[in-house]
Amino acid sequence: MGNYILRRLFQIILTLVIFQTLLFLILDAQPGDITLQYLTDPRVTPEIRDQMRIALGLNKPPIERYLQWLRNFTTGNLGISFSHYPRPVLDIILERAPRTIVLFLTSTLVSFFVGFVLGKQLAWRRGGSFEYSMTMVGVVLYTIFTPWFALILIYLLGLRLGWLPVGKFLDPILWRDAPVDANYVFARLGFTGFVLGVLVAFMWLSTAGLSPVRRRSLRIVGLLVIIGTPLGLWALSDVGYLAGDMLEHMILPVAVATLVSFAGTMLMMRNTMLETLREDFVMASRAKGLSEAEVRDKHAARNAFLPVFTNLIISIPFVLSGGIITETVFSWPGMGLTLLQAVQNEDIPLAMGAMTCVGVLALFAHLFADVTYAFLDPRIRYQ
Amino acid sequence: MAEITKSQLSGLTEPIWRIRLRLLRRSFIENWRLFREYPIGMIGLGIIAVFGLMAVAHPILMEYVWEPRVYDPVIGYDISILAHPSQPSSTHILGTDPLGRDVLSQLLYGTRFGFSLGISAALVSVIVSTSIGALSAYYGGIVDVFFMRLADVVIMLPFIAILIVLSALIEFNGLSLALVYGILVGFGGQTIVIKSQALSIKVKPYIEAARAAGGSDGHIIFTHLIPNLMPLSFLYMMFTVTGAVFAEAALSFFGLLNIRMSWGIMINTAQAAGYLLAGPEYLHLMLPAGLAITMLCSSFYMVGRALDEVVNPRLRQR
Predict the structure, then answer these.
(1) Is A257 helix (H, G, I), strand (E, B) or coil?
(2) What ipTM does this complex have?
C-alpha cells in the first residue's frame, strides 16, 4: 500500500508539471497582453504601457517566465495578480474560494443525496411509469441549458414574484452601514455550516444502533437542537440580519446548481443498483425473510454505493471551478467568475493559480478515491 | 492445382459479404427490439426526428415560401413592421428579434447548425477515443501510461474556461469548434471508458484464437477489437453530441464565437439588446432558442441512455 501511494505521488507530480506546462502554453499563446486593456485610454501612452510590461515581467521571453512560475510554485508563491495589482494571487484565491466552496459543496452534497435516494428507487421500480417519468425529468434537467434555466428562475422568482434577490453575493444597501465586512460574516457562516454538518453526521451515526422507534424521536429532537441552537445564536447576534441576507442570496444559485446536477448521480446510482440487484446475496436476503425495504436499503443500496461514492469524491475538486456558468449568471464573486475574468483579461498568474489549485485538488482526490476504495471494498488490493 | 479461395477454405457456399450482411441485419433487428423496450429512447428518437424535419424544412421554406430579404436568418429585415422586436404575428409566427430578423427562421437555421456541429464533434471524439483506447489497451506499457496520464490532465482542464482561452487563439467557427471539442473529449474521459472496455475484450478467447491463427497486431485491432468497441463508442457519441451543442450554446451566450447564427447567438442577441428579463411580451426572444437547445441535448442523451440498456449486458432484464 505504502509503495503504491509513493508511486502515485510521483505520477501526480509528473502530471501536475505537464498540466501546468499545457496551461501556460495555452494561456501565454493568446494574442496581446493585459496592457492592451488601456489601449483606448488616452492617459496611458504606449511608453507607459511598455513600462507596465516591464513591471509585470511581460517583456521577458515566455520560457523564462514559465521557469520562474515553476520555481515560485514549488516555494508556494503563486505570484501577483495583474488585474488586481498588487494583490498576491494566493490572497485572492483564499478570499474567493470559500464562497464557491460553500455554494457548490452544498449543492453537490444535496444533489448527491437526492440522486442516491431517487436512483435507488428507480432501479427498484424498474420499468414502471415512475421510472420513466423521473428519468425524463432528470435527463431534461441534466441537459437543460443552464444560463437559460437560471435566467428563467431569476425572472420568475426574482422579478415577477419578488421572493428572492436576482443575483450578486449580498445587498449593498443593507451592508452600507454594517459594523463588519462581508468576509467576516461569511467565514463564520461557513464555519457554522461545517460544525452543523459534523454534528448531524455524528448524531446520525451514534443513534444508528438504537431500535427504530426510539431512534426516530431521538433523531428529530437531535436535529431540532443542533439546527435550532446556531439559528438562535445567529438571530441574537447583531450581524444576524447580514447573515440572513447572504443566505437569501445563496438560495437560487444552490437550487440551480442542484437541479441541473442531481440526475447524474441518480442515473449512475440506478445502473450500479441494477447490477447489484442481480447478485445472489440479494436473493439470499430476500429468502431470509427480510422486508423489501431492508433488502433495498441495507443490502442492495449499500453495495451499489461504492462507485457512486467514488464519483462524488472525484467531483468534489471541480466544485472549485465547475460553476463558471452559474456564477456568471448570478454574478456570484467566486472562483468560477474569477477564473473567467482572469482568462478574459489575460491575467496569467491568477488564471494559472486558480486552475492549478483545482488541478492539485483533483489529483489528490483521485488518489484518495483509489485508497478509500481499497478500504471500502476488501476485494481490492494494490501492490 | 486449383487455386484455393477463401470461401473454399472455410467451406462456405455463399460469398462472405452476404453472410456478414445477414449477421448485421439480424443483430440490428435484435438490438432494435431491445432498444424499443425502453420508451425513453423512443421519445428521444422522436424528438430527434422532429428536429431533423426542422433542419430539412429551412432550405425548402427559404427557397419556395419565404422571401429571403425578409426571412434570412442573418441579414433579413422586415421593413413593414415599424418597431423591432415585434410580437408573434401571422407573417412572423415567432415574432422578430431586436434586429428585425424572423425568429422562426433563425430557429430552423440553428437546428441545422446544431445538428452538424454535434454530429461532427461526436465523430471526431469517437475516432480519437476508440483508436487511442484500443491501442493503449492492446499494447499497454508506455503507450498506455502516456495516454492515460494525458487523459488525467485533460479531465482536469475546466472545459468552458479552456474553450474561452482557445477562442482567443482560434477563430472558432462551427467546424473548428467541433474539432477542438471532439479532441478534448476524445483524449479525456471517453478514452478511459473505451480503454477499460477494450481491456476486457483483449482477454477474450477469440482474440487469442486470432493471434494463434497468425493474425497480425493490425489485423486483430482493426477486425476484432475495434468492431467490438463500436457499440460503446456509438453510445458515447450520443453524449458527445449533447456536450458539444451545450458548449456551443454556452460560448455563444458569452459572445465568443464567430459563427453566423445559432441558438446560443439568438439568446446572446436578446441579452445584448437588454430584452432578456424585460417581461413576458419579449418571451419569444429567449424561450424558443433555450427550449430548442434543451430539447436537442435531452433527446440525444435519452437515446444514449436507451442504447446503454442495449449495449451494457449487465443492465438487461434477462
Answers:
(1) helix
(2) 0.82
